[in-house]
């Protein structure tokens, strides 16, 4: 069978190649490859891609040779291959037949399809033989000929043709070029892994360039350089480091035939996307330009730009239809998108999208700029409603992106909770509450804040380090996860009687039948103010665990297994009566049943103005809040009351952020009040309400300051009333990039501090948002988490830190405000992120000074055997969801079968001289025979 213009691209993953000196892959004939070469048959030969036999990847090229010198397979480029510095074309060939095959290889140059511009040589492959690493020299020939006008720098076509043995079939694979000798093959899995960065987890409609090798469709202006590197890679194993020496010097991409990216061809609005890292030392605007047409009168183009900070990685895109950016919060209902729209800096011109002829990138820097590019592709246009079509599958996962732990069907979830529970254990060297053991050497018994603590207290060691103290008197550092509840797992479906959203309705492939709130709202932000919301997590939770009660039991066991000793803020109160580990409780002054409208004052903040604490309704609301907490506490058994670490009230309030004590705001009585006065009234009312409700002997943990809403004056006032100050600190760590002045004030006040929120997120989860602090991957999240905790534990004033949050935000956005972050320890199907949980076990084990390196999955076996049982009682180290699924799920793929290799004799490497007697005699006759197209 003959076929024409087979355009493939390099298969990136899972291909083990022999290691050649400066080797580049030309093609391994894989489906989905993208390069500018055309692979065709000519003469009477037929060529077909097949799945066996193969020597590399999953496909090879079957070549059915006809009459002598009458045809073969050819690979040709629209311009020169650029092989001027290369020495060999290297390839693999298989002969499954019963006869020896003689064939030729020819390279033609300078667009002249005659032997005067070609080099060719002849080869043999014996019957039933696989030959690997056959070398065709681009400089010399043993049995062929070199044309007088041949130049290897101008090679445009490579041919495999019939020699003296007509009507035979061979299989060609793994065509490479090399500038040197063949090295020993590298065992699969041995190469150093590429340094990865995060790519936007959106659907790829068409790959333009994967930068696994330098293709012939890439052109560089004078001075611009390109080097393939294995750092800052988003897909595959290579990326391209581009050096732009001056303004407007560009890297350009030209297709062999015009790209057709019309809406009709793509089936939707599209965009050109590129993963790019600014490796320079200054923020730089990267410009992209698209062009359509070829004739001078038809060529039109538009330029776009996006400023990328030094060291930052972004996926940037250009809307092919010049669609204006959507308001991601108000129109889409999300907080973050995974890719960033480049803005046009000139009036956009409508392109002929069926004739896109050029993509170029450049800068306007007058000095050198350097970027790493990867994964140039066409994606759905996130500036258009169709870009969000069916992005969420029936389980609430990313429908267009595969990731670790992705569930393929609801049936895979069944029973996973029970299987996981059998593996869970706990850290061994702990007090019953998760504190240090009495003989740990940590004695925190000085300067205790509460005179008669009802449960936990907070005290100093003789060395001046603050600790929480558990009911048995042991030092306790509160390590926890927050938001363990279903409420924040709901997402708006777009269905509403008031403000329906067709964009949101189109996001979902299916809506589950349970955990639907048909009248959710009013929301804080989003396109639907009130309407239908659904919890995919709730449905998946029941499939995994069976029911809510079992989920609660298994959740607490998970916390113990991962080493956490506290259920953080906004834990569902249903945990209070049954939790085996301590927990915090919380209240809202102005939010909840029966609350009265309170006047507001102060500056505008993210969540709104401050309540006026002189309003009598505020005092009434504070009393209701304290009474609600007291009711919850009084309903608990004595044993459970002892597990109350403390009480948070309110969150991230809009205290002035300028630190100017002269700022004044008028209350409902028209009186001008400074922020310090407002704080004094607020904290006195709240702490008084807690005291009056009988909660004064529980630690008051403050109101969780945000960096954008606090002043030194307010913090000083809070220190008078709160037993422990609380801050939400979204930084890399508290030592290097948090507020040095705030740390100094804490030291001066000498007050204990607890962190209410921090997190890191990554896009390899499939979520569209990373969160406030960004990581490159789940592994990087884990490393950043550990570094953050190291900085907290090293500070003598910090007595706890709670990660926000236990569960990932919905990919389509939290119903209340659109948060869509990968910030959970578990995802939407309740699958733990093993990188995070394994790291947490080590971090939490080390809190009281133990050497816990043996709990790291990468620790040496001898280390594990000697000490792991002394530290941890479970069997969950390194266990992934895939491990739980694999042994009982018939739907879980086991991976493709290995292709069957033909039975062969010991192969020989034909490099122009190792021939059979038959071949030698035949080639003597053919010594001066010319081959033809």
Overview in brief:
The chain is α+β, with helices and mostly antiparallel strands and 933 residues long. Among the domains are: 24-178, Jelly Rolls, CATH 2.60.120.260; 206-388, Galactose-binding lectin (Jelly Rolls, Sandwich), CATH 2.60.120.430; 491-534, no CATH class.
List keywords for this structure.
disordered N terminus, 933 residues, single chain, Jelly Rolls, elongated, 16 helices, Agarase_CBM, Beta-agarase, GH, alpha+beta
Strand content: 15-25%
Distance between the termini: 19 Å
Mean pLDDT: 88
List the total number of helices: 16
By CATH, the superfamily of the domain at 206-388 comes out as: Galactose-binding lectin
Keywords: Signal
Pfam families: Agarase_CBM
InterPro entries: Agarase_CBM, GH
Domain Agarase CBM-like: 229-383
Task: Map the helices and strands.
Blueprint lengths: L23 E4 L10 E6 L2 E5 L9 E5 L6 E6 L11 E8 L5 E9 L8 E8 L3 E9 L7 E2 L8 E8 L6 E10 L27 E4 L8 E3 L4 E5 L9 E6 L5 E4 L9 H4 L3 E9 L5 E9 L7 E9 L4 E7 L8 H5 L7 E2 L1 E2 L11 E8 L5 E12 L35 H6 L35 E4 L5 E4 L5 E2 L1 E4 L8 E3 L9 H4 L10 E5 L10 E5 H10 L2 H15 L3 E2 L15 E5 L12 E2 L8 E2 L4 H19 L3 H4 L2 E6 L14 E3 L5 E3 H18 L19 H10 L3 E4 L11 H10 L3 E5 L20 H16 L4 E6 L30 H12 L15 H11 L9 H6 L30 H9 L8
Parallel strand pairs: 21-22, 29-33, 29-42, 34-37, 40-41, 41-42
Antiparallel strand pairs: 1-12, 2-5, 3-4, 4-12, 5-11, 6-9, 6-12, 7-8, 7-11, 8-10, 13-25, 14-17, 15-16, 16-25, 17-24, 18-21, 18-25, 19-20, 19-24, 20-23, 26-27, 27-28, 30-32, 31-32, 35-36, 38-39
Helix pairs in contact: 5-6, 7-9, 9-10, 12-13
Pfam families: Agarase_CBM (PF17992)
Protein name: Beta-agarase
Keywords: Signal
